[in-house]
Predict the structure.
Amino acid sequence: MEKYAAADTMWVLIGAFMVFFMQPGFAMVETGFTRAKNAGNIVMKNFMDLCLGSIVFWIIGFGLMFGTDIGGLIGAPDFFVQNDYGASYPSWAFFIFQTVFCATAATIVSGAMAERTKFSVYCIYSILISAVIYPVSGHWIWGGGWLGAMGFHDFAGSTAVHMVGGVAALVGAKILGPRIGKYNADGSVNAIPGHSLTLGALGVFILWFGWFGFNGGSTVLTSMGRIFVTTNMAAASAATATMFLTWLRYGKPDVSMTLNGALAGLVAITAGCDAVSVPGAFVIGIIAGLVIVFAVEFFDQIARIDDPVGAISVHGVCGALGTLLVGVFAVDGGLLYGGGSELLIIQATGVAAVAAYIGIVMTLIFQILDKTIGLRVSTREEIAGLDMEEHGLASSYADFMPAAEDFHGAVTAQEAAEAGASFTHVTAALPAAGRPKMTKIVIITSQLRFEILKETLDKLGITGMTVTKVLGYGLQKGNTEYYRGAEVSVHLLPKVKVELVVSAIPVAAVVAAAKKVLYTGKYGDGKIFIYDVENVVKIRTGEEGYEALQDEPIEA
């Protein structure tokens, strides 16, 4: 340690470890805010962002970002990091710190494109952004490029890391399109809640902790005290502002949005955590906490860009916002401190340039991938869940929490309408005398066929049904699965059980319709059970028997 300061070296390495720990934080946030059937896929994407990114950033990305400047636009390639980049700490300490920053930029896109993106295509994207895309704009800001020379201030990456990931997420989610069932034909929006708010909260706490390394690790020990305080203050004030705003707008404080609020504050303060005062950080956090609510609503309800975790708003919008606010709140040169508009103009120039660069490049890349390999999984794969279709996992939770399927009205509306087109409402004459026969029909079948069955039964005139998500297996003992190379003996498959009682509608008509739309000729089509019913009582009116099964009372 003769050449390097031991304390600075250790702090940079500790900061790198803390930023590394943000990777599971992102994984938990994204997993918790999406559905259980995609949990394994989310974890895998976040994991491979780090793995693939570490390799290609070492091979080429680091050199393009920090190599000898070429015209202010790019660094000279330094394959496998051969040159010396040390300051008060060694090159390898600097390299590992920058590697985990690169992984952070890459993984932001995962959440916005969750639940419908092909894993193979995502891996290609991850390689490209870590190898070339992120390093180029990063060089402009941190590697001696033209933005840094202008005086553009982005201390720890509101633009260089977060806005880069947020703009890429915006482009990807737009080209990819919304998840099945997110938007109805009439334009209304379906909320698709995540499966574990506790996982999402855990992820936010991990990210908040890691952010002290993200921001504080970008400087040496003697300077980090105020950075820690401004970082924490912005997160706290942002979350508080979001809580109160959602309380006013929705009638109750929204938990998931408040969690996003904390992340919005952290992203916004990242650019100026070293340059603003603690009161300035407090105000920046409040602004970000308010903006995030309207940004999420805008993309979800107006732009109709489906972002399951709010990554575009948190990282893209608040990354740009935080960078601009440096020009307002910076103690040295900010608009509020008598510095005029010069810094604000420089900040706006940097934000616009990076946003345009990432937007254009990512549009080209995602369009090429979409036209060649295809960005999106099939409808069937998306409904079944990417855990099963992409990774052979029926559930990421094994015996603890089976991944039950969620159904939304628009899931397979077109297919269902076509399948049920041949069936029309059936009306049976009211029996002249005697007690009419009532029959209970129970249909157990694949979740993938439920919407088709429901549409068909509606056309027959069924007035009500009970639907239950169940687990089970037939003679085939479920699908064959393997875990770490060993076959899983018996696997309970997710099924749906539909129960209905009919009297006016002939049983034969219901059975014929169900058989027609459920038949595929493969194991798992399901079974139909038929039972006699002794009596039915409608609680609201007190009607019994045949009359209790009708929508309107039958007059004698």
